[in-house]
User: Fold these one by one.
Assistant:
Number 1:
Amino acid sequence: MGTLIKSIAFQNFYNYFGTLKDNTFTFTSGINIISADNNMGKSKFYNGILWILKDQVYDSDLKMIQSAGASFIKMASSKAKSMGEPFTMAVMIEYSNGQRVYEVSKSVRFNKSGDKWEVSGQTVDIVETSHGSTTPIYDTSQQTRIIEEIIPTQLREYALLQGESMEKIVDLSSKDGLQKTIETLADIGDIVKIKTNCLTLSRLARSLYNDQQASNTQRSNRSKELLDEKATLDDRINNHEVQLENLNNDLSIAKETKERYEALIENASSRESYRSAIREVDAEIQRLKETKQLKEAAITAKLYSDRPWLLIGHGDSISTFVAKRDELVTARALKMAQKKVLEDPSTILLPEGSPDVPSLRRMLKLERCEVCGRPAPKGTEPWLSIQRLIERPKENAPKTANDFSRFFSDIQISAGGVECDNNKLLESVASYRDEIRAINEAIDKKREELADVQARFINVGGNTNDESKDKSNLSEFQLANRNIEKYTAEIARIKEAIGRWKTRIEQIDAELNANSTDSSIQRYQDFRDLVLCVERLVDSAKERIFDRILDELRKDANEKYKDLLKGNPVEGGTLTFDKQSDGTVHVSIKNAENGELTGLGTGFQRMKQLSIIMAIISTKVGDNRFDYPFISDAPFSEFGDNFIKNFFRIAPNVFTQSIIMVKDLYDVDAPSNMNPLGEEIYNRMKRGEIPGTFYINYIEERSDVTSLVTKTKKYI
Amino acid sequence: MRPDDILKEILSDPELESLLQIDRDSIQTARMDVPSADPNIEVIKSVIRGGYNGLSPQQTFNEIKAIKKI
């Protein structure tokens, strides 16, 4: 049992322009990777498989599954359409079931009529190859069976999945989900059918007994009363059993709803606390930034306010300047004096230390030269010489303003201050800079803290726009809870009433049979009880098989889960599968103390789901192995490198064949179009450590999204 | 599941003997294609066959009535 897809080919299908031969992917057992960036044909590839298997495609504009028939125009290659000529769009899957090989293709023909395209009806072609001979299959029911064989309907939910909708696909609490899948895995479809028949058989046996009883009973008023009462009670039981069935269904739905919203609610409170933590850390970062700005402004103020900050560090230049200035002034005075003497020889040049005017006047009065100590009587040459000295022409100071002197003096004054404060200022600036450095460190730390909180926030499904969604989730959760209470109470009430009515019927039977004239009634009663027993036996047989499969799944899924988590620092807990009274299976993650582990991020939730998918796909029941291809588009969204590596390590042991469309290994700028992780996986495949094939899609010519043409390189 | 597997599973019920008073020998030798001496086993087989072959419950009911001579 099982199938292996040998190839998939596309003709003028979305980006895959050209013939089937141009766009053929051949596959082997192991992992078959189609690595591509966005818009390079991953989802289109997946849609090809959906078209063949389910006559559906995923419309990425509408974000929903559509019937293929309604989407043919969209599915056709834009490039083929742009050429204006009639063309065929087709997808072909070639698979083997171990004995025969089938080529299954679906195609439609496009013809241009005016501005519009006319699309022919869909054609299904199937060719069977066995022992070298090929046979076309025309019978539609046979065609359906052959398509069904690629991946059986009940397993498609698990074997054929899109990463983004994994939560919806792996609806673990759905009565029609895991329960039906386990029934398929256990191949107990027939026993379920037998069980349903048994319900009718029991009713028929009861009815037969009642009829017999009525015909055998003495025609007394009392007997009539009892038979009427019994008939009424039987009717009530029948009606209430139907009600019970409906209520059980309603309860299942309410439980599913509760489960779905419970996870969201649990995360909602986590999200709320993360939201407020993000706000606090953000505010703290803002405050630190403001403090930093103030410190920076303080440094600027120190440097610019009344301080010629350009002179900082030029203290030596000031003393050099003073010496040079003195030298300049002396040299200038001497030069001026020499010039005077040359112009007027009568110019008197007084040597340094010459007496001043009051001293000269005193010398005239005393008639004595105080310089040489000789007498200088009035009217004599020495006296007249002293008088000439007093009366010598007095020149004003040169009119040329000593701008430099003033300028340099100003600088000297300022620079002197700076020089005095220089060390202090530098110390002060250094201290500010230390403070700014500390603030920067604090900001970096806060940013790390913010990134951490944001990561946790995202891990619990947070985004910035979901505050109102959390509120509506809460009200849905509360409504589901109220419904569960209501239905549970109603079910208990009905069960209690049915029990009471059955007891009363037993009493009536006993009374009627005691008065019966015909002992054969006992045979009818035994027959009725026998059929009831068989019903119970069939039911418990079905439950035992179901439980065994559930146990297998529990064990297998946990092994896969642990394998997928390998190397992850976070304790992931244990997957538990609890069968509910209504037949549904509740899957949760429990910690070592057996408490439910909540708050795990989307990545973990998806790992839980993927582990279960892996367990379902690989579960062996008796001699049966459900050996179908696992086909997934973007299974790794939300996962880190560690998980992806673990997946590639485990997958070959789980799936005989998997076909994975993935962008996490792609790098548009790398010559090989592989990122380091892609290179690593590719090298491991090349060394034969991972069996399978490795394709890379690329776009040869840049163009509008609608006219893209995907090309493919096969690396392995 | 094949009818024989279903029969085997039903007959492996721990409560079978007390519910239907079927003797151990009949349980151990029961097979779909071999008539059993125990009519209750024949009833069970008829129910399995009916479900497996898609017979209507009424047809199966008539068959088990015939087995039990009702």
Number 2:
Amino acid sequence: MPRSRVLRRVALRLAGAVFVLWAVATLTFFAIHLVPGDPAQAILGGPGSQASQEALDRVRADYGLDQPLLVQYAAMLGRLLSGDLGDSYALKTPVAGLIGGQILGTLVLALLALVVAWVLAVALALWSTSAGRAGRAIAGGLELTAAALPHFWLATVLIAVFSTALGWLPPVSNDAASGLVLPVVTLAVPLAGFLAQLMREQMLQALEEPFAVSAAARGETAAGLRFRHALRHAALPAINLSGWAVGYLISGAVVVETVFARPGLGRTLLRATELRDVPVVVGVVLVVALVYVLMTIATDVVSRLADPRTTHSGGAT
Amino acid sequence: MSAGTAALSPPRTDGPGPVLEVTGLSISFSEGRRRRDVVHDIDLAVAPGRCVAVVGESGSGKSVTARALLGLAGRTARVHAERLSVAGADLRNADERAWRRVRGASAGLVLQDALVSLDPLRTIGREIADPLRIHLRMPPAEARARALELLELVGMPHPALAIDRRSGELSGGMRQRALIAAALALDPPLLIADEPTTALDVGVQARVLGLLEEARDRGTGVLLISHDLAVVSRVADHVVVLHDGRVVEQGPAAEILGAPRHPITRALIAAVPTDVPRGEALSRAAAADPEPPVAPSAPSADGTAAAGGRRPVEAAPAEAPPMSADPRVARDAEAPVLEGFGLAKSFGSGATAVHAVADASFRLHRGRTLGLVGESGSGKSTLARLVLGLTPPDAGEVRLDGGAWSTLVERDRRPLRPRIGAVYQDALGSFDPRWSVRRILRDALGAARMPASDAAVAALLEQVHLSPELAARHPLALSGGQRQRVAIARALAGSPGILVCDEPVSALDATVQARVLDLFDELQRKHGLAILLISHDLGVIRHMSDTIAVMRSGRIIEQGDADRVFTSPQHEATAALIRDSPRLVPRAPGTNR
């Protein structure tokens, strides 16, 4: 591809990313103002603090909360443009620092869950495409069930079985690696069901293609056909979906972090929303959106590397 | 059978016995609880250094037979044979391991349509090295070197570059070469080629057939599956004719092609258009109709009965102007209905621009056919789009009935659109699959501001010899020939004076193609249609055209009277096209190997 076209693509992507971030900030800002409650209360320590009317008025004036909503929105955009996420109403600390302290845990959780989901999905797809009719029916049922499992229910069951009954793993996430197992599995299983279903169908389709018949006619084994040919064709759509999957995993993290009492962005977001802590909510959502945009770009790059048809130079292998 | 020396090996002389022996082969498929028999009791034998051709229409069981010989007929297939041996190995009760030892090592398979027969995600070097890796456990570097040798053997241009390419980056002919190289990697004693030249340009087709001949001459037994008798006549020593899964006739190629006895064989031979004079029916000899008998036989009588081998110009419609003694002169003196002047169209810009059409001029007269021939990528279809007013030309002009056409704005062009009907290769792709035939035709009638009544739909179907009952069907429930007839009926909806047909029969079997070509002839006689016929098949073009234009790299390199172009081509490329085009010429028994 000529250099100018590459640059154009990059510029378009960046413009798209900026648009997404602006749209996310805007939607979040207005959505949180639809939720009943008073931010001034949150600033003064929550609804139980019994702050005086005088104190509430002073806080509203200080924070600009007595201004019309559009003025508040413009002020927020101006702040965000200068790179300032603002201070938390409730904690009175900078939002950036707050997020910085929490983001690593959530990212580790989401990425581990993505890896585990892929491993499970590939294994299930490879097995089910080689199994007979009964095996396929079983795999299909498993995938559908897994994909439909709600996170909170799965988390509860896993805790009941592996922590309470068997005592193998801690019910509360701690710093040890064993504390990560149940949260990661909770997030990974439904995604694995979804990915496996997609990959199995793609693999079966690829195995019917004339190129698979040609390969079989060269003496390729059944396993060789699936590994060398079908799996790659099946992986491409799954890679493309992985950008979306990260968004799905981070939203799932809100539930999982709460159930397992694990610090992270999800729990921060939940608390901030309850308290109507607008800067924290907007900040967290913006950061999650940024991660999502970056992941989408990353999956685009990976799928370009995995699919030689999308590059023009060729001969890379 | 050392794989390392195959490229240089002398003609094989492994004497004992045929490389393929099949007796009493039957194949059936289970469909739910029922079984459907597709092949009944077939006998086949291929000796080393010989080529046996299995011919027949699609659905005759050719391809499934080819696959069954490698144990690849599919999970639902049940294959039974009294004798089934490849290179001496008895495969009647072979398990998967035994089959794998045969596949690629004792028998190579070349499938039709190389675009989908090579894995688009793998380089052809890897695909070709597969048999070496699988059967010989050859280290990758050595296998790659051998793959390079094989690419040279099959005449791949720039093999050192091509080895790292994937099928999407290669032309149709290059893909087919790669597939053949993969099938020949271990120099197997048997090569099975299933329609290896279908969908290829004639030049490429000739070179691919040359590869099969070379393999045969090196001592490989070749089993060629094809519906194209012209192709078969060039390479086969022995011909087996299949119909409905049964062998209806077989024998030496010269005998079968020169003096066919069975009506099916005769129909297949008659359907080859190459050397049949202009205007003569191709399907007259088609005694057995493989398509469902939906066409009432009567309407074709008026057209084909009159055609005794000469073009019945007398049959031109009554409103035609009076003609002089030589109708052709009279016709050419008439004003052309469609004219192109210095047409040009390019895509992209700057150094990467592709000049799809450059300085093309032509004239099309009433009741005449202009055949536009050229290899794929030569600009034929772009020219068709210019003529249809679907793409504006960069330069030049198309004029319709002496008036403006390509220069009009679409609003002014739309009322004139019914004057030109279009028929494409992929009829199915040009229909909305959820629409019934009735709705498709009504839609076309409405677009042409014609009354869209059921009677009008029935009249259109009758014109293309389809039963009015088909109006309720959906395109997917029709055969390929029926679909193309519906496409023609749709093109006729606006009572056009001109038909633009872009590869209208390329996707059809030989005998179906013959009947569709006859239909074009008949419609032209009845309505005085001017036809612009685009095809890569020189046989079709020669049979159908009054004048011929040969395209190459976007330019019309030669244009003129059909007979003149064929008998004394002025351009080297035209001569090459004619030379490479396979013709049905049975070799005399003496020259038969």
